[in-house]
Structure formats: C-alpha cells, structure tokens
Known about the structure:
By secondary structure, the protein is an alpha/beta fold. The chain has helices at 13-24, 40-50, 64-72, 89-94, 96-113, 150-168, 202-211, 240-256, 275-286, 310-316, 324-335; strands spanning 4-8, 28-33, 55-58, 79-82, 119-126, 172-179, 181-183, 219-222, 234-235, 237-239, 262-267, 273-274, 292-295. The chain has a domain at 4-183 and 237-269 and 307-321: NAD(P)-binding Rossmann-like Domain (Rossmann fold).
Amino acid sequence: MKSKILVTGGAGYIGSHTVVELVNAGYTPIIVDSLQNSNSLIIQQVEKITGVKIEFHQIDLCESEEIERLITNNPDIQDVIHFAAFKAVNESVSFPLKYYRNNLYSLINVLEAFKGRHVNLVFSSSCTVYGQPDQLPVSESATIKKAESPYGNTKQIAEEILEDLASVDKNFNITSLRYFNPVGAHPSAMIGELPNGTPQNLFPYITQSATGRRGLKELTVYGDDYNTPDGSCIRDFIHVVDLAKAHVVALEFMKNNHQTNYNVFNIGTGRGYSVLEVIKEFEELTGVKLNYKIGQRRSGDIEKIFSDVKKSSKVLKWKAENGLKEMIQSAWAWENI
C-alpha cells in the first residue's frame, strides 16, 4: 500500500466515494468524521466495496485536542484530503454562524495540527467562490466576486487562508479543487448521497420525490424566471465518481510538482444543464413522471454557472468520463436499493 491519507469528512457523500478510489489506487485512508451530517453505516459499505478495513475516528474538528493527538500519534501521515464542512447553500443563509464556525474552525485546526510537518493537502472547495461569474464558462483566473451565500463565503475565506499559509510555509503543498455540482452514486449502488431531512440538492430531491420516500411527494423548482433558455437555474453537474478520482490525481500531481505549493483547479464537465432539463431527462430515462411545481427563487442560488476545464485537463491530465445519463441512472439505482 502507498502512504496513509487522512480524509476528513470521509463518511460523507464525496468523502466516501473518494475513500473507495484511494483504496483502489493503493493508498491507506484514515477517516475522521463527526457524523453530524453522515452515517457510520456508509463506512461499512465502503469496506464491503473495497474489501479493506478502514480506520475511523469520530472527531469534531472544531475541537482541536483530538485531531492534534491523532496527528501527533501518526507521524507517517503526510497527505490530507479535507472535506469536512457544512454545504447547504440555503441553510447557510439562515444560519451563517453555524457555517462560519464549522467550516473555518475545522480547517484551521487541521492546519495547526500539521504545523512543522511536510504535508500535501487537497482542499474541497467549490465553484461558489466565483459568485455569479461575468463570463461563461468560468475559468480559474476569473475574478472572485462577492459570495452569494455564507457557505460560498466560507470557501472564499478558506482559500485565502490556504494561499496565505502556503506563501509563508513551504511545508504545506496545497491544491484547492473547485467542484461544480457533484451528483450520482457508486456503480455498486452501495454508497450515494444520503441527506438528512429534506434534500437541499437537486438529484436526491428528484429521486426522493419520485419514490415518495421520507414523505416527499412533490418537487419544487425554485424559480423559472431566470435569464436562461427555460427560466430555471443552470448548473454543471459532475458524477461523484469522476470527482473522487480527481482527488487521487491531485495527490499524485502534488507529489510530482515542485514549481508552486499552491494550485487551484476547476473540477466539472464544462457543460451546463438547467433544472428543468434534468427533470425531463430523468423522466425519459426512468419512465417516472415527476410531480413538480414552480416556486419562488431560493436565497443564495446562482443563476447559471458551468466550468472551463482546460487547466485541469492540461495540468492534471484529468477529465470527467460520465455524462448526465450515467449520473441519473446511478442516483436512481442508489435510491432504489
């Protein structure tokens, strides 16, 4: 096996899929997760998929003592993927302090725990750092505009923290991956997106309303009066397995790149789909008619965004392999297990 990798938030949606890909690539992941927005059963599913026992520590990263103890006791950990964060845009508008405390304290405590040691760190960033971009597709060189939500602002601030740190401490080799919209599930249908309560993201909202599970009988499209062809928001959706593989590629890149110790990459497909387009494609692929209504715009939502992925393709040698069809089919299989 290759080196140990600390995966914070590793029991979550993106984290769990990335742990699978890390094992497939020969790494030894160590999961740290508070389980506030995840479930330890997912770790058991990851073990079934990989056939490997995964080391797990239930730790709240907002409390520094436990993560400092873990890092001190594992001097051979030199790689970190930091997922641990709250991520619901609309919720962050209602509870901004919850997001600032969790998303920033957790990152700072992890960085402090590795102080004085060489570490390669992949940071789970987001396309929300761009706000509503002036030009599409949006590239990594685009102007960072005022965030549309506290969640987006935590990602902007976090990137500023990481860039400032990297500029003065060359022990830190940092790559920020700006995700677009992760969707879908592992092809085994053993792990997937598992939101608590009413889903905030489109795909589980669609699949749960289609089955009527958890009492969700109707789907709301938040706004049909945006400046888009059909009036609904446009997003760049990316299959979660493609996204997970990007983290493995980013780690390998950092181990071989000695030019700069802070890098940023877009991780998307370069193609935007509207909410109503996704609904139509879901109905055609599954044969299930969705019960949906048009609602008011939702606070914090960006009108339209999709990625320029030339840099990640050229530098990381990475590109998404799955299309909207595979995203929908895998999400639907996961919902129906």
